[in-house]
Amino acid sequence: MRRDDQRQAVKNIPLEQLKPFKNHPFQVRDDEEFRRLVESIEIHGVIHPAVARQIGEDCYELISGHRRKAACEVLGYSEMPVLVRSMTDDEAVVNMVDANLQRETILPSERAFAYKMKLVAMSHQGRKGFTSAQLGRKCVGKESRELIAEQVGQSRNQISRYIRLTELIPEILEMVDNRKMALNPAVSISYLDKKQQRLLYKVMVALKATPSISQAKAIREKASESDFTEDYLVCILSEKKPNQREPMIVEEEEIKQYFPSHYNSEQMHNTILLLIRNWSKKRGYTQ
Which of 119, 136, 275, 280 is the most buried (most CB within 10 A)? Predict the structure, then answer.
């Protein structure tokens, strides 16, 4: 067999031999996109093989194909086609991130950890087994964040903002994922230490409020002072924001009875928006 064939061979591999990528930042969510995938595989089979690298005897690490594997498990399949490739740790990270950024729906937390992992891998270029050519273009003279920005169609600063989200405590990061806190205020909050973030989260939950951009910047500046207290956070989050209107609040508990039990907050939010748009168009309120 030729060397190229040895490096890239498609084979049917038992699902139990396929291990998830270490610190995989992308979730396998039981959403509409996943259910369409299950239906497609049930009808057509796995059209595009997963990609994995061998990490031991009868043991493979998935690079891409985590959702395809999950779909096969739902369908009761015992194996799936996999393209087995030989690659270094850094090559594996770059390939894993690039493959998963093709998803239709990506949470801010997923982008955050994916960009960070890829940035670290790219910073290793020049080490044995990892060259700029493997990134798909010449990297000479380009800073890693700039290269990632070009590849994903975002600004260098936006890449940096997403990476800052990895410094948030899980509870606040979940608020960003669920669209309860905007990206830019979250970036400012990420500069607080973990104890300060936990205190802020406690106040946000109690007041059912999140900081505006200006409030988040003020909180960040206050973080280095001795009077960064719960009282201060209550005071600043209680301020009326410019042009603030009384918010319309619909508690999740009130509406989740109308959705499938497996729906999360993001799925309910997206479904409600879709229904409202369709309702508005039917009545001629919007085009």
Answer: 119
Task: Determine the distance from the C-alpha atom of residue 128 to the mean position of all C-alpha atoms in its chain, rounded to a whole number.
Answer: 30
Q: Which domains occur in the chain, in start order?
A: 1-86 (3.90.1530.10), 89-167 (no CATH), 168-237 (no CATH)
Three-state SS at 30: coil
Helix 230-237 with 194-207: angle, nearest 10 deg:
50
DSSP SS3 for 13: strand
Cα–Cα distance, 51 to 100 (Å, whole number): 12
Beta carbons within 10 angstroms of residue 39's beta carbon: 12
Measured in degrees and rounded to the nearest 5, phi and psi for residue 156 equal -60, -40
pLDDT tens-place string over residues 254-264: 788 888 888 87
pLDDT tens per residue across span 196-243: 999 999 999 999 999 999 999 999 999 999 889 999 999 999 987 655
